[in-house]
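Aim 2 progress update. The chain analyzed this quarter is reproduced below.
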Amino acid sequence: MDFEIVSSKIIDNVGGAGNIANVTHCMTRLRLSLRDTDLVNSEAVKAIDGVMGTVLQGNEFQVIIGADVDLLYKKTKELLAIQRTASGDAEQLTQKPAKRRNPVSAVLDFLSASLSPLIPVIMGAAFITIVLTILSQPGILASDSQTYQVLNAITSCVYYFFPVLIAYTAAQQLHVDTTIAMAVSCMLLFPDFLALFNNGETEVAVFGIPIMYGSYSKQIFPTLFAVAAQAVIEPFIYRIIPKQLKTMVASGLTLTICALLAITLFGPIGSLLTQGMNTIVYFVVDSLGWVAIPVIAFINPFMLGTGLGSANFPIMMTTFVANGYENLILPAALAGNAAQVGSGIAIATMTKNSELKHLALDGALVALFGTTEPIIFTVHYKLKRTFFAVMVGSAVAAIIPGVFQIKCYGLVNGIFSLPAYLPGGMENFIVACVSIVAGIICGFIATRLIGFNPEDAEFHFNKEGAAA
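Predicted structure tokens:
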């Protein structure tokens, strides 16, 4: 994929740089906040080589790209900056969209946009964990060796200092001073500050306000809340402080106020929210037992197809960073993605339409590697009944990872995620492999049994391959 060409074409077909208020991305989608959605030529965007589909939600136009979305995002930001500088509107990207956004959607987009850039470093840490597991199990590298401990420290430091990492990305999304945001998050982890509590035995207060003792490493929400507060506090302070004093006084006041709010208010609230989310996840798993994962697998195609998949992301990320593994959404997606593979193969065997056969097989291949939106948008949305078939196939296949309660030690999906199940033991890994095979079989059988209306195939896919 030529990212510069793709980015340029996307910008041109959504109304130009001036119509884009903000750009973010999640795991597979480029998300463009637009001022006027009437200027979008969605069919032209879909026709761009490398684009797998599009979704319009409110004022947000989502372009489905797949695993390369982070690279396309960087190029899009670069081109937007160049075009705005050339037109004299260099600050335009920080302006708000003309249309009022749905608050829930805005919060989910902020969470997704803040967390997504951290996926590479998390996957890098997971890779080290997987390699150490592979080397230590046969005794090639002893777990008590210094080499093992140093490499393991690389992984551990990513999770320990996660609040600092997310402070950087969140500050970029809210257009506040990143260094102040990172300094505030460092305060939550600062050893000298934590030593004041003497492991919780000493009460600590600032200006008479008690500070709750707690460990904020491996947490997401305390920093996110602090940065959100900074987005309100920073502009206000910089507006009331004289220009001559802004560099020192305004920065000092912002840092002080945000840090105090972080340790007295947002840290404890965020910590409680993190604990609450973990409690809910474990409650669902413990209460529903093996049924929890099939339920998630059943609704997941709907979540992805409607663009609501980003709601899973904060839950998945919070659980993974806190525990080092994820045992609900990723195991469900492992079986569900495989069901999409089986469904695509079944559709290809059931149709004589060359275009539908081509799209089904292409979608199946992409789903095998972890991205299901292409087959959802290009095939299931048009055939309709196969959408329900793959939901059923996903749920049935997910009974296996549900019963065995497997754990994934990396934020990855698809067939390449299998090594991420190794740290959980050989049984964990074998069940993951079986889940993929079961998913392909269940997706194939469910689609063959439920089928689709031949008229839908003839209507949506003519002999030349163009949509009717």
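The first strand starts at residue 20 and ends at 25. The longest helix spans residues 246-288. These observations will guide the mutagenesis experiments scheduled for the next reporting period.
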